[in-house]
Amino acid sequence: MLRILLNALRTGVVTIRYPAEPSAPPDRFRGAPVLGPGSHLPPPTVCPAGALSERLDAGGRHVALDLARCVFCGRCAEDPWADAVVMGRDFELAAHHRDDLRIEVVADAPAIPAVAPGRDAEAVRASSEIHRVLGRSLHLRHLDAGSCNACDWELSALLNPVYDIRRLGIDFVASPRHADGVVVTGLVTRNLETAVRRTVEAVPDPRIVIAVGACAASGGIVGEGYASAGGVDRVLPVDVYIPGCPPRPEAILFGILVAVGRLDARRLHREE
Ligand code: SF4
Prior knowledge:
Blueprint: H1 2-11, E1 33-35, E2 52-57, E3 60-66, E4 85-87, E5 102-106, H2 121-134, E6 138-146, H3 150-157, E7 170-172, E8 181-186, H4 193-201, E9 208-212, H5 213-218, E10 240-242, H6 249-259
Parallel strand pairs: 6-7, 6-8, 8-9, 9-10
Antiparallel strand pairs: 1-4, 2-3, 3-5
The protein binds iron/sulfur cluster.
Iron/sulfur cluster binds at residues 33, 46-47, 49, 51-52, 65, 70-76.
C-alpha cells in the first residue's frame, strides 16, 4: 500500500488540461494532409482510400480532398509530391456537415485563404438547444457498427487518467435509454444496420449522433457493398463527423465538445 502511495506521489498528475490548454501531439503524430496549391498536386489514383478527386474547368485543375475518407496514410505527401502536400498536425477537425470536410484547391493558383471558424445559423440553433439540455453533463452510448477496433481503442483511452473525460462531465453508459447520444465507430455493416437504428431510436430526444473515424464518417476504404451500408449517415442523421483513422483521443474529445456546442467546429479552407 505504501509503495502504491509513493508511486502515485512520484508520478504526479498525468491528466492533460485540453481543451482548457492546447494539447501538443507527439512528434510522430500525423494529422490531415495539407494541399499546397501548385502544379504538382498528386492525381487521385495515388490515394488508396479514394479521398482525392479532381476536375478540370476554365479555372484550371481543381484537386479536392475528402477528409471524411482520408486515412492519413501520407502517400500523397511522398515524393514526387512532397513539395506540394505536407502532413499537418491539426487534430481539431470535427465538423457538423460532411461537406465541411471537403477541401478543394486549384493547381497553379494562389493559396485560398482559410475561412474563419464559424457556423451556419441552423447549426448554431441546434447546438445551443443541445448545449442548454446536455452541455454540462453528457452521457454517451458507444456503438461499434463494424469497426476494426482502432477507433474503439482511442475512444476507451478517453476514460484513462491521461484524458479523463469525466472531468468534463462526460461519461459512457451501458444502455441507450440512459444516454443523451450515441458515438458510432466503424462503417455500418448490413448485419448491424437494424441494431444501429434501434439503438439510436432508444435514446431519448434531444439526442446526438457522433460518427468517429473515417469508416463511420464515410464508409472508409470499404465503402458500400453487399456487406456494408457505408457511413453512419447512410442510415441515420449525423450531428458531428470526426475524421481520422483512427482519430486520436483529443480529436474525439474535440468532436464531442463540438456536438454539445461547448466548442466551435473548425471550418476548413475550401473554395467558395
Ligand atoms: S493521406 Fe493517404 S488517404 Fe489521405 S489523401 Fe493522402 S493518400 Fe489519400
